[in-house]
Queue: 2 jobs
Job 1
Amino acid sequence: MNLPNRITLARIFMIPLMLVFLLFDFEWWSHELSLGSYSLPVNHLIAALLFIIAASTDGIDGHIARKRNLVTNLGKLLDPLADKLLVAAALISLVALDKANGWVAVIIISREFAVTGLREVALLEGSVIAASKWGKAKTVTQIIAISALLLNNFPFEWIAFPFADIMIWLATIITVYSGIDYFVKNKHVLKFSKM
């Protein structure tokens, strides 16, 4: 197994570790980290750092694979799967912790399933749907929004600026728009598949 695929697998294996720190409330690691009026359980800080590290490996594995000509079919399968698992796990956890609305998680996760389905139909028809600029913007805004929610809006909480709330709204809007954009630009795939 090559280096980019190992990095992708490491991202997948970081997901359950993140969930353990985020969702299990053991007394020895749930002490509050306080800075003035801001507070965050230490285990949530560790979970947020794991999420940020895992999310940052997405660009690293792709860059290495393209630069060293190590692009494989396994990598093409694992990379988007790892991204979707990471975002879905974090969003569902945030809903469970009452830090995000359930409908936001449903919209974002549903879009991921829909676009994945479209890509699979395209593959069956012999074409590949490349990532769009809106798809990349969706990923960036989701990562920023989830990170801000995991960190309890740090450091913006000090100035009472709802950065995390604004970012999750922005991520949801861009997620919906990018999903529509994929389907509009690739409607020929769906028409062809009906034949």
Note: Strands lie at 32-35, 38-41.
Job 2
Amino acid sequence: MSQTTETTIVGTSALIERLLKGQFICRTTDEDGWRALKSPSTRDHVEQYLNQINRTIGSAGEGEVFFCGYQQIGDGERKVISSQFKDICNALIPLVEWLVLVQEGSGQDAPLSEGVAVRLTELQTRIEDTPAFREQLAKISHYRLFGSTSTNVDAQIKLVFKRLVELGYLTRPNSEKQIYIATGKLDYLYEVIRFIDETEGLSLEAQAETATQRDLV
């Protein structure tokens, strides 16, 4: 490894650690890391390092979101991927129903995507004023993914948003404000949904929009 490459790797060591921990790098979550991976030379150096440990840089959202994947898949890697995919599948219905609720409650034409802000207080007001939205939120919050036992809208919505931050789908830049920003992990989720829809014919988005009664608890 050349001195230049070593210097680059040292400068991006924190970024590599984030990738190896399974985090998604986008402009919203880590603008410096995102810019580094958008640079062909830096991305190549990171890729070379990851390749040494059977990892590679994956991307989603038309190349705007980066994550770490396996370069070659053996039995051990297949078990890890299978477990991760199962976790995502178990979370799909509550996540899709939440996305539909946010889109309808916010009056947006398009689904929530990376970089878009959600003002919790405004959304909560609309939900409280609309019986159908209140029912949707109650159902969503009681899924095992969120685990709410409350009948109160305020407690339900705050728990859901707190959990989504923990899962990496949202970020809250200022802890003193109820403003959340969607991360690139949502764009990755959309690609997973499209993949499953195309290969399994599940029509997950259609299921959510028709308020399926399927329960994942």
Note: Confidence is low (pLDDT under 50) at residues 1-8, 208-217.
